[in-house]
């Protein structure tokens, strides 16, 4: 007698038979039939055809039957909205039932039926249930508000349910409080601007009381909510911490991690001198260690979070290295995470142990893991200087094993060690060269070639080695080709006499026979450098390289601080802020750690500085988010940028001849510069852009991007502000937004003590620094100020969207004005979408979100338009010519992560363009259009 | 919150789906299947998988993937903990948790899942509350139900649902009142080639089986509570009392539950109760190798190229599975006078070079009446009820993840 009988069918046709049974007079038979229907539903069969028959069974005293029908309704009501109305009466009646279980069940089910007509009927019963005498009903009703909000947000606001929900936070029953908090958090997530969870010391106190008494799941919701609170001083922070600490001993790991989040965040406010600070640090370690004895899936999430925690506060787990040692039957995803944390915790004190472990791992079976272990040894060498020697000898031992992938990985990391400790371990080069033949992976080959080129003067047969690679030049990957080109040029500069032929060979291979613009460009640069100015060539090619350090694989400090606020969430698993992967329309408020208060901070080491500060004591190395050091040397191997139009082949040939001659002529290493007049001018183009490429290595992208800046306008006339006149404009340069102001004193007295504040606005614009007017402003004097802005302020939707309300204070009074900012200051530099992504997103956004605009009287052609827009971070992804008109497909991203996709149609004869915008948040479209118009017309 | 749940068996069939909000098409699982294909073994499927519009969080237990679909930012630990709770509940309801048993009880499973989450928020996850709402199927009840037409679904609000002690139902009655506590400790350790301990730690739990009438209030005290500095309690334990007096004071749930789990870290030296002497060598020239192990019931995974092994144990039985290359040796009891050993030769695949990796020995053992950390219960007192319960306590030490590298 098992339920599997419900899956059996007869030949007559299942649906037909079920229909008959559902309409049977016998209760028992009816129930069995409904069970069969449910069973089919669970395996994904479509039984919606039975809708009327099942709903007919709803009016019954049998609770099980009722529940089963409800289950069915929830699944299929949406597909048959008209029929679903039939159920309304029963629901309304059940909401009055004396049994609280049935009342709760009815209100719960109604909320799950996502049919508009039903929601109208739901309001009255829901209002009643929110005030029900039975807490079980109240707590169910609280969740129902969240459901309803998901279906019809406006209705919930109009009916005042949000206020009732807020009142429930003060409910006497902790379970009700927890559910109210959970519901409010969910609603707030889709409405970042609505200040739903208005936390103040009183409500915090209530939450902390409920925290002790509610269920484990409720504790998670409450803790996550607490983490958003900003205590007013260190004393309050400490008292909250004290009340949260007991949660660290909870059996539910999610509770533990949420508690860790609250503590990590509020700890930021505590002074390091406090005894309590030390106690708290000590208390954090054991629960984190305990998380590692849980199931592997939990371990994985815990490890990703511990990775953040050890970067922020390494002192917490510095003695716990051993718990991260890998067991051979750990799942691979746990192994890799453990390895990463081991490196982060490695220090002089424990390096011997770590190395012994890593060596052990390098002999395991799993290839991925072995590779990472070998890389880890290299990272240890770079991180702990004292261990470098031991690491190198360990790596050599591993190379001796001759296991192919171990050897290749070892060579990649030895290259990094060479860079970190130049002229120290070159004695091992001989051993490396022995393994040349076994290298078949591009990265390892490139690393080996780099080593040979870099130390060409010490390797007797460097030319032979490199020549051997040259044979299959065209079969190599770009990475290897580029590296080979550079290495041979290096070799040539070091041993010019013997290697002329080789260098010519490689230059012609790179410039003539390759389709890769990167390779060609680099070939031309070298060629020209070598032929015009060998000294400069030496300076460029053999330049001193910046040191590498272990800091390179750390998460950038400001991002780390943000991620600490997201401990326990998906963001912490991906090590990306939610804005990077939660869809833009949801809108995300940036979180930041609270600044430290307390008195003695300034006297201490730099890392006690307010949390904005840690960036300041970063080493001068460029921190990248890359996982492994391997990335470092590949700086110059970035993805191929689409090259400029190439010189025609005839010109190319000419150039080759010319340069070739000069190379031949310049025997003995000194070159006669090729007369520049005879050099084809076209060579200049690839050359210039190639150089640009080179300089990009250090400069980073977008240095030249400065978007259009409107002329200043008067924002605050002197008459309205007791003689202070303010005019200004907004600008965006190199990724930072600023407000350029001119303050003019038109009064008769001196003005001083200026300060500025913004009201909450749609995009969270806020001053990034205080308004600095250094000297008092004398009468009839004016001063120009650039006020840097950021977008991490609080968010509130304004009307119009780009409205900014500003308050300026001086020694005389406070003045208010409001201004509209052009939206293009919010277009970020990384707003270029992948082609594929663009297509997918364009299709994905519903057509009703598309809006069309006309841009009139614009005489630019498509290329000029696209370059002009690019200056303001509107990126052209593709250009098509359809029936004589140019179509530009463009993307841009706003600071809050909203993507806007655009299609710009340009007809050569017609000066007005058609702009179609698609965006998940259609309300911004109009302002984007305005921005387009401003940029294009100026 | 949690949007939907899919249960997927080892061969990649979705055999149950449940949606708590709108219906998510099962095609979302394709991303999961992709990841499953990429992973070499089922255990290695990553627990968090991003897809363009959803996130898939999964746990793998009893050869079934429990895949939760979420749409917005949710603490992943919350989801994973919940999934484990679902598995535990099934196990509690049906004795075992397998595809067959879930299919056999699909309606109950569905009802239970509906009761556990509402709109993705956990509703009732305590097993005693669930059991009052939906009674677990037993043969007797099925028979009675068919005759009388009554149902498996309780029609009263469970009493525990809202009380301050949600884990205990009221009106419990027993003729024999008993309370048993099992102190079970597992040693997780890695021992290196030379026999020295690389890491060792103890994961301890106190599992209780309490069958007491009424609302008893228990206190449990330890001889050496200072050992317990890293503990996780069942919600019933009063944390304040533990902080101030180091006494466990609680109103117990009815039946079986885990009162406490604790962790004794590597710093407190753990004395390893067994040792292993081994000598495993592969020779380069011939296709033979030597194999010798002394002590311990164990499991060894041999390298791929090992064809077979000829071994003679001094006691116990051993099996070598040539497919999985797993050698298991069940030793039985260890007699300190005459240590068990397993000796013999290994035959390797001819022609291949000798294996690069050495096998790892996985050790399983049990020691009765000993808690290796030295934890001892002092006394158990009961307040609030008049009768005298029968009390019992057991200690046991087991090997957890105990590995010896060779």
Automatic annotation (TrEMBL), chain A:
It is a peripheral membrane protein. GO terms for biological process: intracellular protein transport; vesicle-mediated transport. InterPro entries: AP_beta, AP_complex_bsu_1_2_4, ARM-like, ARM-type_fold, Armadillo, B-adaptin_app_sub_C, Clathrin/coatomer_adapt-like_N, Clathrin_a/b/g-adaptin_app_Ig. Residues 827-937 form the Beta-adaptin appendage C-terminal subdomain domain. Gene3D superfamilies: 2.60.40.1150, Leucine-rich Repeat Variant (1.25.10.10), TATA-Binding Protein (3.30.310.10). Residues 708-818 form the Clathrin adaptor alpha/beta/gamma-adaptin appendage Ig-like subdomain domain. Residues 586-623 are annotated as: Disordered. This is AP complex subunit beta. It comes from Taeniopygia guttata. The gene is AP1B1.
Automatic annotation (TrEMBL), chain B:
Keywords: Cytoplasmic vesicle, Golgi apparatus, Membrane, Protein transport, Transport. It holds the Pfam family Clat_adaptor_s. GO terms for biological process: intracellular protein transport; vesicle-mediated transport. It comes from the Eukaryota. It is found in: Golgi apparatus; Cytoplasmic vesicle membrane. InterPro entries: Adaptor_comp_med_subunit (IPR050431), AP2_Mu_C_sf (IPR036168), AP_mu_sigma_su (IPR022775), Clathrin_mu (IPR001392), Clathrin_mu_CS (IPR018240), Longin-like_dom_sf (IPR011012), MHD (IPR028565). It is a peripheral membrane protein. CDD domains: AP3_Mu_N. One of its GO terms (cellular component) is clathrin adaptor complex. Residues 176-405 form the MHD domain. Belongs to the adaptor complexes medium subunit family. This is AP-3 complex subunit mu-2.
């Amino acid at each position: 007698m098992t339920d599997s009988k419900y899956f059996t069918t007869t030949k007559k046709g299942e649906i037909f038979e079920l229909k008959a049974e559902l309409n049977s007079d016998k209760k028992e038979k009816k129930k069995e039939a409904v069970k069969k229907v449910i069973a089919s539903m669970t395996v994904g069969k479509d039984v919606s055809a039975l809708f009327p028959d099942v709903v007919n069974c709803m009016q019954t005293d049998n609770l099980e039957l009722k529940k089963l029908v409800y289950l069915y309704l929830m699944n299929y009501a949406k597909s048959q909205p008209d029929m679903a109305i039939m159920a309304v009466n029963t629901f309304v009646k059940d909401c009055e039932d004396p049994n609280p279980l049935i009342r709760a069940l009815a209100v719960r089910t109604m909320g799950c039926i996502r049919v508009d007509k039903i929601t109208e009927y739901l309001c009255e019963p829901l209002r009643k249930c929110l005030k029900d005498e039975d807490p079980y009903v109240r707590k169910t009703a609280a969740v129902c508000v969240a459901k309803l909000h998901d279906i019809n947000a406006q209705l919930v606001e109009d009916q005042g349910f949000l206020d009732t929900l807020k009142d429930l936070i003060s409910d006497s029953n902790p379970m009700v409080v927890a559910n109210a908090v959970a519901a409010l958090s969910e609603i707030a997530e889709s409405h970042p601007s609505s200040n739903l969870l208005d936390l103040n010391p009183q409500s915090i106190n209530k939450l902390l009381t409920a925290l002790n008494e509610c269920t484990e799941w409720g504790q998670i919701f409450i803790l996550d909510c607490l983490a958003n609170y900003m205590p007013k001083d260190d004393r309050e922070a400490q008292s909250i911490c004290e009340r949260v600490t007991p949660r660290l001993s909870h059996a539910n790991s999610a509770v533990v991690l949420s508690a860790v989040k609250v503590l990590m965040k509020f700890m930021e406010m505590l002074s390091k001198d406090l005894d309590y600070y030390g106690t708290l640090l000590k208390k954090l370690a054991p629960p984190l260690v305990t998380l590692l004895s849980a199931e592997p899936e939990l371990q994985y999430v815990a490890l990703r979070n511990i990775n953040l925690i050890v970067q922020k506060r390494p002192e917490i787990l510095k003695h716990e290295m051993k718990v991260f040692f890998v067991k051979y039957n750990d799942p691979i995803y746990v192994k890799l995470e453990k390895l990463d944390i081991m490196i982060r915790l490695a220090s002089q004190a424990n390096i011997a142990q770590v190395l012994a472990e890593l060596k052990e791992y390098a002999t395991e079976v799993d290839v991925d893991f072995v590779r990472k272990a070998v890389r880890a040894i290299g990272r240890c060498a770079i991180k702990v200087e004292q261990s470098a020697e031991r690491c190198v000898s360990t790596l050599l031992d591993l190379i001796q094993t001759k296991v192919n992938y171990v050897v290749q990985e070892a060579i990649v990391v030895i290259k990094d060690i060479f860079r970190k400790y130049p002229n120290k371990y070159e004695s091992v080069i001989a051993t490396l060269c022995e393994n040349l033949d076994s290298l078949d992976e591009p990265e390892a080959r490139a690393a080996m070639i780099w080593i040979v080129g870099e130390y060409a003067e010490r390797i007797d047969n460097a030319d032979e080695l490199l020549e051997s690679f040259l044979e299959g030049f065209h079969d190599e990957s770009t990475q290897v080709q580029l590296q080979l080109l550079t290495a041979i040029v290096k070799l040539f500069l070091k041993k010019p006499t013997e290697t002329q032929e080789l260098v010519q060979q490689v230059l012609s291979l790179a410039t003539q026979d390759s389709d890769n613009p990167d390779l060609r460009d680099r070939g031309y640069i070298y060629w020209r450098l070598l032929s015009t100015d060998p000294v400069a060539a030496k300076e460029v090619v053999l330049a001193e390289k910046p040191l590498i350090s272990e800091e390179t694989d750390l998460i950038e400090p400001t991002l780390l601080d943000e991620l600490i606020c997201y401990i326990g969430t998906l963001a912490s698993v991906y090590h990306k802020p939610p804005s990077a992967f939660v869809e833009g329309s949801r809108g995300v408020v940036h979180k930041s750690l609270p600044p430290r208060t307390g008195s003695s901070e300034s006297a201490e080491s730099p890392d006690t500085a307010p949390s904005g500060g840690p960036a300041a004591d970063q080493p001068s190395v460029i921190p990248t988010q890359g996982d492994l050091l391997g990335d470092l040397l590949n700086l110059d191997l970035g993805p191929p940028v689409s090259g400029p139009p190439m010189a025609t082949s005839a010109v190319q040939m000419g150039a080759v001849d010319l340069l070739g001659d000069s190379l031949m002529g310049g025997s003995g290493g000194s070159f006669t510069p090729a007369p520049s007049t005879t050099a084809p001018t076209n060579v200049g183009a690839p050359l210039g852009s190639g150089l640009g490429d080179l300089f990009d290595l250090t400069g980073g992208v977008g240095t030249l991007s400065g978007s259009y800046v409107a002329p200043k306008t008067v924002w605050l006339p002197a008459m309205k502000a007791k003689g202070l006149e303010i005019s200004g404009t907004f600008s965006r340069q190199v990724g930072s937004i600023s407000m350029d102001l001119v303050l003019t004193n038109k009064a008769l007295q001196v003005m001083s003590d200026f300060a500025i504040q913004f009201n909450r606005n749609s995009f969270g614009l806020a001053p990034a620094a205080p308004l600095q007017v250094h000297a008092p402003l004398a009468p009839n004097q004016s001063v120009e100020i650039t006020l840097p802005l950021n977008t991490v302020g609080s968010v509130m939707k304004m009307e119009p969207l780009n409205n900014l309300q500003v308050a300026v204070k001086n020694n005389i009074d406070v003045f208010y004005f409001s201004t509209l900012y052009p939206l293009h200051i919010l277009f970020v530099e990384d707003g270029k979408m992948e082609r594929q992504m663009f297509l997918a997103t364009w299709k994905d956004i519903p057509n009703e979100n598309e809006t069309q605009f006309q841009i009139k009287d614009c005489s630019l052609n498509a290329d000029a338009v696209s370059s002009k827009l690019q200056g303001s971070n509107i990126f052209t992804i593709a250009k098509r010519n359809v029936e004589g008109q140019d179509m530009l497909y463009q993307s841009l991203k706003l600071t809050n992560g909203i993507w806007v996709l655009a299609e710009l149609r340009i007809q050569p004869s017609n000066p007005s363009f058609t702009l179609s915008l698609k965006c998940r948040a259609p309300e911004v479209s109009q302002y984007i259009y305005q921005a387009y118009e401003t940029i294009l017309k100026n | 919150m949690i949007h939907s749940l899919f249960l997927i068996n080892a061969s990649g069939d979705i055999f149950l789906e449940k949606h708590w909000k709108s219906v998510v098409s099962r095609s979302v699982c394709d991303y999961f299947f992709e990841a499953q294909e990429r992973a070499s073994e089922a255990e290695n499927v990553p627990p968090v998988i991003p897809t363009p519009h959803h996130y898939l969080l999964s746990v793998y237990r009893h050869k079934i993937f429990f895949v939760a679909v979420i749409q917005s930012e949710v603490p992943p630990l919350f989801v994973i903990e919940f999934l484990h709770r679902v598995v535990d509940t099934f196990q509690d309801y049906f004795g075992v948790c397998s595809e067959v048993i879930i299919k056999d009880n699909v309606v109950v499973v569905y009802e239970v899942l509906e009761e556990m989450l509402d709109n993705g928020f956990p509703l009732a996850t305590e097993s005693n509350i669930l059991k009052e709402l939906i009674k677990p199927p037993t043969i007797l009840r099925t028979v009675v139900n068919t005759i009388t037409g009554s149902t498996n679904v309780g029609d009263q609000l469970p009493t525990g649902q809202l009380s301050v002690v949600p884990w205990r139902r009221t009106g419990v009655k027993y003729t024999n009142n008993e309370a048993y506590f099992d102190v079970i400790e597992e040693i997780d350790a890695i021992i290196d080639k030379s026999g020295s301990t690389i890491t060792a730690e103890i994961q301890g739990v106190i599992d209780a089986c309490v069958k007491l009438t009424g609302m008893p209030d228990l206190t449990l005290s330890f001889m050496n509570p200072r050992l317990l500095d890293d503990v996780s309690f069942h919600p019933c334990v009063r944390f304040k009392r533990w902080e101030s007096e180091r006494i466990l004071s609680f109103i117990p749930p009815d039946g079986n539950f885990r009162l406490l789990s604790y962790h004794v870290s590597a710093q407190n030296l753990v004395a390893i109760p067994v040792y292993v002497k081994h000598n495993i060598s592969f020779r380069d020239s011939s296709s033979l190798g030597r194999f010798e192990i002394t002590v311990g019931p164990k499991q060894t995974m041999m390298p791929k190229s090992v064809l077979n092994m000829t071994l003679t144990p001094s006691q116990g039985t051993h099996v070598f599975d040539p497919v999985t290359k797993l050698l298991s040796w069940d030793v039985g009891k260890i007699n300190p006078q005459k240590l068990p050993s397993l000796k013999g030769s290994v035959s390797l695949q001819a022609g291949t070079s000798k294996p690069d990796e050495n096998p790892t020995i996985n050790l399983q053992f049990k020691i009765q009446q000993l808690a290796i950390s030295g934890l001892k219960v002092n006394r158990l007192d009961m307040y609030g009820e008049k009768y005298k319960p029968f009390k019992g306590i057991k200690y046991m030490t087991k090997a957890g993840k105990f590995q010896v590298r060779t």
